[in-house]
Design goal:
412 residues; mainly alpha; three-stranded mixed beta sheet
Length: 412
């Protein structure tokens, strides 16, 4: 009996020591962060102040990233303090730091905003109460920071452009915000239509001469240099520029970036906007943490146009799959193109999963408009020849033979 008591006492002592060690690591890091913050507040030099703030944030992130504290009050408190540090911005980096602060508060809320009963499945009641309080404080603080950020962003031209389009229909939550995104998308599509027409016409020409390219590949099989030369001769003869389809993509990238910055600047206002199922009674019913991109959560049905929405991601994936399949131009690479039509949409959907619904809505609408335009251009009938019939591929002589005969005539 005595031996049993001694054993129990040793176990209790070991558990107490382990608990003390567990708590002391976080306490030590919090103490170091507080010391660095105190040094930053006393410092009169900007560089020294920023270094101290960085040290404090680094200490706090060690708590956030420690697996022992994931889902625990220590990590939630550390995230709250990181967001608060970022909110104390100087004028030169005000917008950047306020944005970082807002996103950190948002991340905290995404990770820890759960009912007390759900939290108590993994922790004691005092710890659950602490997390509930931290989340409540984070929600209030985030609204305060987001309001300051929105005021800063409202001075920018991109903010004013989108605000103008939202204002056209009276800032109505169920209509004005998504309609503004669609309207901007249509305007952008109209502006880049000449480029996309050239792109799709080039694709169409590539499809027409694909059998001739295949002939060259079979005729000069194993001689890559000859295949390259003959193929380029074929392109020149038919007036096909194989790089014409790349230009519209290069033009669209800076436009895409500008629109992303526009939506990002207006994101606090997009929290008021809804769209069909977005903002419905099913909002925030189920969500998953996104490991890449902007992070945060993608919701099955988002609460607003500022949140990520999985249904929009899936619709975008389908629209991109269709457009990619329609863009296939080389029948000799059918398997690779089929695989690309699957992999490309999956890759982009995975990257864009955590982005605001407003951004995904733009990308989806643009893709739909472009796919419809591509369909009509690619399916347009060929112009008739003087004989009243478009030339068929079978009736065309071997282009490489014509090119060689032409060269022989020039030499004579």
């Amino acid at each position: 009996m005595r031996l049993l008591k001694i054993s129990l006492a040793l176990i209790l002592i070991s558990l107490s020591a382990a608990t003390a060690s567990f708590a002391s690591k976080a306490d030590t890091l919090f103490a170091k962060a507080d010391k660095a913050l105190a040094a930053a507040e006393k410092s009169t030099r900007t560089a020294e102040k920023n270094d101290n703030y960085k040290d404090a944030i680094d200490y706090l992130y060690k708590i956030v990233n420690d697996k022992k504290y994931v889902g625990m009050p220590e990590a939630a408190k550390a995230l709250y303090e990181i967001a608060t540090i970022h909110a104390t911005a100087d004028e030169r980096t005000k917008t950047y730091k306020l944005n970082t602060s807002s996103e950190t508060f948002k991340k905290l809320i995404y990770l820890y905003d759960q009912p007390k009963s759900a939290l108590m499945e993994n922790m004691e009641e005092p710890e659950a109460n602490e997390i509930v309080k931290i989340v409540a404080d984070a929600k209030k603080k985030r609204l305060e920071v987001a309001g300051k950020l929105d005021k800063e962003n409202s001075n920018g031209i991109l903010y004013k452009i989108i605000d103008f389009f939202v204002g056209l229909t009276g800032y109505r939550p169920a209509f004005s915000y998504w309609f503004a995104v669609v309207l901007i998308t249509v305007i952008i599509k109209i502006l880049i239509t000449p480029l996309t027409k050239a792109q799709f016409k080039s694709m169409k020409e590539m499809q027409k001469i694909a059998p001739l390219v295949k002939q060259i590949q079979e005729k000069y099989k194993g001689d890559q240099r000859a295949i390259g030369e003959k193929t380029m001769d074929l392109y020149k003869e038919h007036g096909v520029n194989p790089f014409a389809s790349c230009l519209p993509l290069l033009i669209q990238m800076p436009i895409l970036m500008l629109l992303f910055y526009m939506i990002n600047a207006y994101k606090f206002q997009f929290e008021k906007g809804t769209f069909l199922w977005i903002g419905s009674a099913l909002s925030h019913w189920q969500g998953w943490v996104v490991p890449i991109g902007p992070g945060g959560k993608v919701w099955l049905t988002a609460g607003s146009l500022a949140d990520a929405d999985l249904i929009l991601v899936v619709l975008y994936l389908l629209s991109m799959y269709i457009s990619t399949r329609m863009s296939a131009v080389d029948p000799t690479q059918a398997e690779q193109q089929k695989m690309m039509a699957i992999m490309m949409p999956l890759m982009f959907a995975f990257i864009f999963a955590g982005y605001p619904s407003a951004f995904l809505l733009y990308w989806l609408v643009l893709n739909i408009l472009q796919t419809v335009q591509q369909y009509f251009i690619m399916r347009a009938p060929e112009p008739e020849t003087a004989g009243g019939q478009a030339p068929s591929e079978e009736s065309q002589p071997d282009s490489t033979d014509r090119a060689s005969r032409s060269r022989r005539r020039r030499r004579r």
